[in-house]
Structure formats: C-alpha cells, structure tokens
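OP here, attaching both records as promised.
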Amino acid sequence: MGFIITGFATSGSVEESYSFYYESSPSAVETLSLSADIGAIDIKYNTSATPYLAKVDVDLKVSGLFVAGRKYTAFFTPYTGWWQNSTPPTSFDMKILPGAWFDPSHWFKSYNVDIMVTLRTDVVYNIDVTAGTGSLKLTTSDDVILDGVSMKSGTGNVELDLSNNTQILTELALETGTGNVNMFSEGTNFTHGVFAETGTGTLDINFTDCILGGDIDASTGTGNVNLKTYNMEYSVTSYWLLETGTGKITLVITQDAGMTSNVTGDIKTGTGNIDITYIDTISTVGARFYGATGTGSFNRINTQGFTQTSSNPFDSDDFLTSTTNYDFNLDTGTGNIFVDGSSV
C-alpha cells in the first residue's frame, strides 16, 4: 500500500526541448544518419532560405509514477552525445537507457518524443533514418535531388511523400517490422528501383507521372499490398514482385502515354485475393495476365480490347503487336483472381 501511495504521490513528468544545427559549406552529397530508439522522426524541407544544412528539433516528455523530480538523463543518454557533425557522415543518435529493475520510475513510464528535421532544398542528401519504436516521415519539396533514401522502423509506420520533379539517384528502401508503408509520388524520377517491406502491415504505393529506372519489390508477411500507377515511363525493363503471405493484393494500372520499356512481374499471395484493374488508352501499349489458383477461380472481365476466354492467358488484342507491354504472372494459394482489362 505504501508503495502505491508513494508512486502516485511522486507521479509527474520530465519535459525537455533541444535544437541542433549543422552549418557548413555543402558537399556534392551530404550524408545524414538519423536514428532514435523511441520517437517519431519527421523530415521536411525548408520553406525559406536558411544558413544551416540541417536542423534537428527534439521535444521529449517522460511521464509516469515515481518520475517527479527526475531528470531526462535518468531515461536517455545525455543530449551532448546525440548530435555529431564534426566529421562526416553527420549523425543524430538518440538512445534510451535500459530500465533498471530496482528503479520503479522505469516500470510505469510513457514516452512522447517528437524529432523534427529540416533540410535545405539546394543540397543533395543521402538520408538513412531508423527508429526502434516510432513512425518515420519524409516530405520533399518540388525540384529536390536525393542521392539515396533508406527509412526503417522496428515498430511504426513509414511514410514518404515525394513532390514534383524530385529525383532519387539510387535505390529507395522503405521497411518496417510492425506497421504500414505509405508512399506517394508525383512527377518523381526514380533512377533505380523501389524496395518496400513490412512484416505485419499494409503497403500503399502510388506513382503518378513518374519515371522508374529499376524494379519494384513490395512484400508483407501479414497484410495487404496496394499499388497504383498512372502514366508511368520506364527507362529500363522493369520487374515487379508483389507478394503477401496472408492478405489481398490490389493493382491498378492506368496508361495514357507511352511506356518506353516493358514491365514484367510476379504477383503472389498465399491466402488472399488478387484484384487487378488495367486500363490503357494508347495503341502502342498492351497487357497479358497469366493466372494460377490453388483453391479459387480466375475471373476475367473484358471491358474493352481484351480477348474474353476461360483459359490462360488473358491478354489484350494488341499484345503481340504493341510496342511495349505489361506482362504478369498471378498466383494465389487460397483465394480468387479478378482482372478487369481495358485496352485501345
């Protein structure tokens, strides 16, 4: 009883805020390594001219029983060790201290940590960001160049929002152990491929008027995969692997312009449906779908320009004569396949 009374009597919180600045002449590529054991990391670009190459703002709060009168250093390493910019690569590493079994302030605590990173639009960055527990978000401005992007969370969502004329010069990697991956891109030039993975969660990937110079690898253990493309251009032949152990795969392709190169791929789920909507409005583009099910059916809808058949493959009438094509193998162990095709 005394322990409980003491706990509530010393209930409280620790709140701290810090700002870190990286001021230097920019190199051809500035590499930033950002990591936190716990907390949300939000990366944005500046809206006005700034003298620094990067700014990191940290707001943290620890609340709970037995916390009153404590300092943040009872829970985190000292802030003087979080930010290192004297030698490249510039890095931010915010670590929590392990909870001591004999310290009750570690038994009943909660964290609220927000880390805001501001970048310059005229600098080329290579960004590697990791969170142990927390969400990650990166939002670009128009016309920025990124050398590379790697975003990884142990437990949390990963979100990437790419604005018009963004360029990514190496492969893009988005990963989370438990959480969703959301990517929205418009007018982006992916000079290489896109890798997205979650252990338990949903992948939502959207391309609009983008250029892709590599492959797409999107997979989840338990969850759905949703991929939508509109007027994509492919600078090389692109291979897509869309895969889930247990979940649904939805693919929507709208092609109103030339592709330049072909797309092939495998779309696979262990238990779940595959739902595809395909539309092209240009005679130089065609599509073919080959479906296989363990338990289920392959359902074909000829909205326009496809050969209605009950056998494989289900292809557009101009597949053999078109200049470029989408060509997919579809496979589900337990579930149905739906393909709605429209081709000019």
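Record two, same layout:
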Amino acid sequence: MQAFVLDAGHPNVLAPGKRPRTTLSPTLVLRDGQPWVALSSPGGDSQDQQALQVLLNLMVFGMRPQEAIEAPRFNSLQYQESFGAHRLVMAGGLEVEDRIPIDVRAELALRGHTVVPVGAFMMDSGTTLVGVEPGHRTLFGAADVRRQRVVTGW
C-alpha cells in the first residue's frame, strides 16, 4: 500500500478498486518468437533501468550473459520515489559506478548531470537471468555479484 499516493489528482492516488503501481518488472525476451532470456532484479525504482542496461549489453553490445551483468552501470536519480514520502530523489542526479571512466563521468557533468559516484559493483541491483541458446537449445544463466546472487543448474 505504500506505493499509493494520497495527493488528489495523482494517477496513482489511493482509490477503491485500484491497484498500486509496482516496481516489480520480471522480463521475458523472445527471439524469433521463441523464449530467449528471462531476467529480473531487486532494487525498487531502479529495477527497470538496470534490466534495460543488461538487455542492451546482451542485444546491442553482444556481451555474454555474465559479462553483461558485471559491466559497469549507472542509475538516473531523476524520479519520484515509489515508496515512503514519494519525494523527488535528485533532479539531474546520475549515480555512476566508479568503473565508468573518469572522462565519461566528467563529460556527463559538463552536460548538466549531477554525477554521484558509487563504488565498483555498488549499484543497488542484483540481476539474474536464464536463457536458451537459439542454435543448440542449451540453457545458460548469469547472476549479479552486486547482491551476492548465484545461478545453478542441473
């Protein structure tokens, strides 16, 4: 219930028969109409941002699953929290793992972002994924060290 907002006129206002907005975002990706990857992550309001970065790493940048999960990440802080006081986190804020090169972070600051560096593997997420290799139909998995995730198979 804490995801509801009590401000009249807000799209997520508490009202009879409504369901609250949720940050849960398990994702299933198809390739040629067949299941390819399923992934999800804890992390509240950053879940969608983190899942998208992992998917882009896989689909656009051609990374292997574990590499895609372990790559450095960023997180926009320009959003209204889904929980608690529903405050704006930080206008123009961009949380960036310090493995992203310093010159990239400097360029982001020049473009008006308030860059908030966090340590290596310190993004508040913990993506795990499973999938099916299209060619030979074997299963694969990968897990995020950011929240001590593991993947097992048999």
